Amino acid sequence: MSNTDTDTGVSQPDEDERTAERLTSAPAESDGPAGIGAFGWLRWTWRQLTSMRVALILLFLLSLAAVPGSLIPQNGQNAFKVQAWKAAHPTVAPVYQKLQLFDVYSSVWFSAIYILLFVSLAGCIIPRTWQFVGVLRAQPPAAPRNLTRMPVYAAWRTDADAVTVNAAAHRLLRGRRFRANLAEGSVASEKGYLREVGNLLFHLSLFALLAGFAWASLASGQGGKLVIEGQGYSNTMTQLDDFKGTAFYGSEDLDSFGFKLDNFTSRFQTSGDQVGSAREFTAHIRYWKGSDDSKLTKGDIEVNHPLEIGDSKVFLIGHGYAPVVTVKNAKGEVVYSGPTAFLPQDSNLTSTGVIKVSDYGFSEKDDKKVKMAFQGFFLPTAPANFDMSTGPRSLFPGDADPLLVLNAYVGPAGDSGLPENVYQLDSRGMTQLNQDGQIAKVKLKPGQGWTLPDNYGTVTFDGYKQWASFNVSHRPGNAVALTGAVCAILGLIGSLFVQRRRIWVRAVAMPDGTTLVELAGLARSESAKIAEELAELAVDLQDDAPALDEPDADEPDADQTDPDETDAAAAEAGPAPDATPDPAVPADPHSKE
Q: N or C, which end of the chain has less CB nearby within 10 Å?
């Protein structure tokens, strides 16, 4: 929009109006190269990279690039699972390997997106912050020459002095927490700086969130350990069941501590619609720090309530049962005794496991050194009867009626040299024992025993203990990422709900001795809030600048007024104000926002 110079008749842009409309401190974006040659193209590329549009695209690409990491096994999480996946998909495995899909989060393309997003955020935050600091140090923009062009406008005449009216307006605006400046016969005020603060906080928080994730991925580690009641654990590489380190955190960086699992409390709901649901899982431990295990401290670890020891957190992630079994050979010698952890298979803790007796000795049948294994199920609450069609299934996760179901294998002693899973049985080269022409198996209650066929000795089910699995985690960037996420939400709320707005008040002495009071408001977005604030300010200003009634001579005679002209004037004036003494003039319907 432009104004026309009355002397020259030439249409020129209204600089004051354009200044009033600029309510953002964001740097202006360029649509093309900023110069000629390589330097110009570099400037243009940098501006595009640091624009909000490109930052959002990179953020979307980062989330999209993380999808393969959740669908395809990763070397950093489970190398054995990766090998199994490659064996099951020999055709596409080489392609996936070249694309680094088995190491997504450390791949070149994922790192490139991550680094570009960092650069984009940094390049967006720094100039925007500097621009906003300049806005905070400057005074609110002066009032435009023509206030009637503002979206919200009000005016009236008063007998009060213009200086007094401007001073009163300045005082009222300061009382409403506006930044106000009284100069050149008018008051300029501005409010809603928290909107831009929210924008900057959101960007800074997003930067901190990404930095926290990057720090955690480079300097974190975690390991797992299953501990049976009455046993202990020391946080060393040799005692961890599994360990995953990072570039700056290895086995030599493990915190020095240990703990003993005294007992485990588990409680389940016994009635209602949620029967069998877990109600309490608590591991009662005693732990020590450093190498001195004589100074023990009691502690409890619950689900989602980890125990912090040094810079590590110990999480409770699993629970189950460990049957206590004693195995004797044909000579009556104890060749195995103790608890063996069985792994749950369903919500009722139907558990499977393997008891391996590698040092059984010599068999009476052929006088050869053999090894023995027992494979079976542990049922915390066993049904009265079950057959091959239903299979062994627990009815309840609590230990109401425990039962151990076993069958036996025997094979030649010796170590193949290959690693074995302690929870699974590799029956290759082993023979399943038979009894009365059928597979030898038994159901044992606590305290019961089983005499093995072919004079292989006896097995006794002595009882059971509970076990708990723990995750020992060291993640230094979690606090930074969490703080960044919370601050990002707060910044987003501020940027969405806080409105940047300006109000101007001008009191000018008129030739007839009265004072013309003008109020105008401008907001960045369409909202009724600026109109409400302007109306409230006009009402409060009436105490210092009461409005004058219009002279009767200026009012047309009711009998001589054309009804069409009256309707047109009413339509132009807009809706009537509330029943208040405020004679504020409504906004110009052709004004520009």
A: N
Residue 16 one-letter amino acid: D
Residue that has been written with the tokens 């940027």 in this structure: 495
Burial of residue 138 (CB within 10 Å: 0-12, 13-18, 19+) is exposed
Closest CA to 194 of 25, 19, 21, 55: 25
Could you give the CA distance from residue 288 to residue 113 in angstroms, rounded to a whole number?
A: 43
Q: Which whole-number Å values give the CA distances from 169 to 140, 165, 338, 541, 586, in the listed order?
A: 15, 6, 87, 7, 19
Secondary structure (3-state) at 517: strand
Residue 234, helix vs strand vs coil: strand
Secondary structure of residue 61 in the 3-state scheme: helix
Q: Strand, helix or coil at 531? A: helix
CB 234 within 8 A of CB 261: no
Cα(160)–Cα(548) distance, integer angstroms: 10
Sign of CA dihedral 203, 209, 213, 218: positive
Beta-carbon-side half-sphere exposure of residue 593 (alpha carbons within 13 Å): 9
Among 71, 60, 61, which Cα is nearest to 96's? Answer: 71
Burial 37-48 (b: 16+ CB within 10 A, else e): eeeeeeebeebb
What span, in angstroms and rounded, lies between the C-alpha atoms of 152 and 139?
22
* pLDDT band per the 50, 70, 90 thresholds, residue 559: very low
Task: Enumerate the β-bridge partners of residue 342.
Answer: 321
The candidate with the shortest Cα–Cα distance to 504, out of 15, 25, 135, 141, is: 141
Task: Report the 10 Å Cβ neighbour count for 93.
Answer: 17
Q: Quick one: how far is CA 31 from the chain centroid?
A: 34
End-to-end CA distance of the chain: 11
The residue behind tokens 């915390």 is 380
**DSSP designation for 552:** G
Q: Using an 8 Å Cβ cutoff, are 212 and 487 in contact?
A: no
The distance of Cα 459 from the centroid of its chain, to the nearest Å, equals 52
Whole-structure pTM value: 0.63
**Strands 343-344 and 232-234, bridge-based pairing:** unpaired
Q: Are the beta carbons of 261 and 283 closer than 8 angstroms?
A: yes
Query: CB-based contacts of 390: which residues, under 8 Å, 6+ apart?
Result: none
Q: Residue length, the chain?
A: 593
Tokens representing residue 27 in the block: 């740097």
Phi-psi map region of 391: left, alpha, beta (phi>0 left; psi -120 to 50 alpha): left
CA 188 – CA 143 distance, rounded (Å)? 6
Neighbouring residues of 591: CB distance < 8 A, sequence distance ≥ 6: 148, 149, 150, 151, 153
Neighbours of 394 (CB within 10 A): 28
DSSP 271: S
* Residue range 361-418, pLDDT digits in tens: 877 776 788 889 999 999 999 998 877 667 899 999 999 999 999 999 998 876 655 6
Q: Decide: 310 and 472 in contact? Cβ < 8 Å.
A: no
Query: Looking at residues 242-256, what average pLDDT do you find?
Result: 86
Percent of residues, the chain, with pLDDT higher than 90: 38
Instruction: Give the separation between CA 520 and CA 530, rounded to whole angstroms.
Output: 10
Token pair of 412 as six digits: 């030649």
Q: How far apart are CA 467 and CA 319, in angstroms?
A: 6
